[in-house]
Fold this sequence. Notes:
6 strands, elongated, single chain, two-stranded antiparallel sheet, 53% helix, 14 helices, alpha+beta, four-stranded mixed beta sheet
Amino acid sequence: MKGLEIAREYWAEYGLPMLKDQFPEVLPYLAAGLCGSGSECFGFDDEVSRDHDFEPGFCLFLPGEDVVDRRTAFLLERAYAKLPREFMGLKRSLMQPVGGARKGVIRTEDFFRDKLGTADGDMTLQMWLTIPESYLAEAVNGEIFYDGYGEVTRIRAALAAYPEDIRRKRLAGSLLLMAQSGQYNYRRCLQHGESGAAQLAVAEFVRNAMNVFFLLNRTYQPYYKWAFRALRQLPLFTLDAELLEYLLTTGNDTEAGDEFTPSLAEAKYDVMEGICADVIDELQNQQLTEAICGDLEKHAYSVNDGITDAGIRNLHILAAV
């Protein structure tokens, strides 16, 4: 059973009954669920995941002290600590994981401030442009089982996806870097005999292609070690995940000399061109570009030109990447 299911069952069997019995007057102001850091919050946990920080439990979110005071928060912490330590063959640890508590009693404002730097999810333009995408993913992943007060659900809904102008800005920058690394620099690096630089170009292409895939799917990309797993579950570009892995895990064999010769490297270049073509098709499907060509760089600038806010549009095209 996945960690998210275990958390839901633990909440239903022990958490909710405890609150109804001991804190009925506070229950309408609380929220419970599982979200944040950890593979189980994304549904990516497996047997390997259970070697650390994997235990039964849930997040119990509290509003500010003006609604739930410190003493009540302390009593809730103590009651949570007394819940059964074993459930479905798993044991709760007496020690907090590195980086602080991922389950238990948490102030809503502390959770979102830790992920985003803002207590209420109200994001400034600079924050939208610079906060690592994986932190946004952790702010809205998982599941909320109960939300009597509605605060956690409201904040998560407001953060569910990038505002359109921000999405376009991030998309434009990643498209430009895709074009530079894949359509242009990869071949030139090999022609110069720079095989290491060529592989860096491949990695840069893959990294930015993944950024583009998640942006075109209107969802946040998680931390890099889960990015491929998340990519395989997206509605768009699912098959391209295998092609990106192919690019990263194969060599760049080419014959010696100044001329770029047909080889494995040529095949990889063709794959990159094919991925660029897929991206251009989807840009046109979503009416994000007015360019009519196979040059991804021109589409990058067209996407940027479509930003409605002049302040965002006039920032450097790479400002969000």
